[in-house]
Amino acid sequence: MELFNDNIAINQCYYSLQKVDKSLISPVLSYFNNDQLLDAKYQAELLLLDIIGNNQANFTFHQKPCERFADFAKSVKKGKLAAL
Fold it and tell me: Which of 13, 17, 23, 36 has minimal Cβ neighbours within 10 Å of its Cβ?
């Protein structure tokens, strides 16, 4: 669930940044750039939501999504993704 939570934080951050800079394009759109990849993303999200099930109400979201995004990016840059 932590990965799902991080994904939501990244999306929230990009959404807020896009309000400031209309030319900013989410990297999600660059990666999921064809129907096959978009469908795989959609299926993975459905599976994850199914796994979370009725626990959605207990889900706690990052209060500072851009800080979480920055920490995530730093850890990936340092090769410490598994440590999160």
Answer: 23
Q: Which residues contact 68 (CB under 8 A, 6 or more apart)?
A: 6, 9, 10, 13, 62
pLDDT in tens, 32-76: 889 999 899 889 888 877 877 777 667 777 888 889 888 888 887
C-alpha 80/C-alpha 72 separation (Å) is: 9
Any idea which residue has 């932590």 for tokens? 2
Q: Which helix (H) or strand (E) holds 13?
A: helix 2-20
Q: Name the 3-class secondary structure at 35.
A: helix
Asked if 10 and 65 count as a contact pair (C-beta separation under 8 A), the reply is yes
Give dist(CA 26, CA 17) in Å, integer. Answer: 10
